[in-house]
Design goal:
This protein is mainly α and 142 residues long. It contains six helices and two strands, in the order H-H-H-H-E-E-H-H.
């Protein structure tokens, strides 16, 4: 049997998955970074308020870069910034209806792909896959 490159196969699959999700994102006029910011706001706002500083910290990007991303997202109608009564300098970030809609569309696409993965493999194969991925992650981590 020919020796196949594990890393190459993982990268190919990852790229295919990314392209499928990016199709939704790009058709909505978003970049990858903008999409990830929307997802972050979507997830975090379920448990707490989200501010620009949170995004700077979570993505480790400069304030000016985050400001640009947020301005574009606001201009495109995906987010809104709301003043906070305790501190006029703070602006709470929330998704608009359109922002929620695009994020739910991405989530649905991912869930659909996951369902297809589970349908393609038996329970035993799925357990073996996760076990193998965990082992490979440990090798890369070392």
């Amino acid at each position: 049997m020919e020796r196949r490159e594990i890393g190459k196969e993982i990268i190919i699959l990852s790229n295919q998955l990314k392209r499928k999700v990016d199709h939704i994102v790009v058709s909505s006029g978003l970049t990858g970074v903008q999409s990830r910011v929307i997802r972050y706001i979507y997830e975090r706002s379920k448990v707490c308020n989200v501010y620009q500083k949170d995004i700077e910290d979570a993505f480790d990007i400069r304030r000016s870069s985050v400001t640009s991303v947020l301005q574009l997202l606001e201009k495109k109608g995906f987010i809104k910034r709301e003043s906070v009564s305790e501190d006029a300098r703070l602006k709470k970030l929330t998704l608009t209806e359109e922002g929620v809609k695009i994020q739910e569309s991405v989530c649905n696409t991912i869930a659909s792909m996951e369902d297809e993965f589970y349908a393609a493999l038996t329970k035993e194969e799925m357990e073996q896959l996760f076990s193998s991925l965990e082992k490979l992650a440990l090798v890369v981590k070392e």
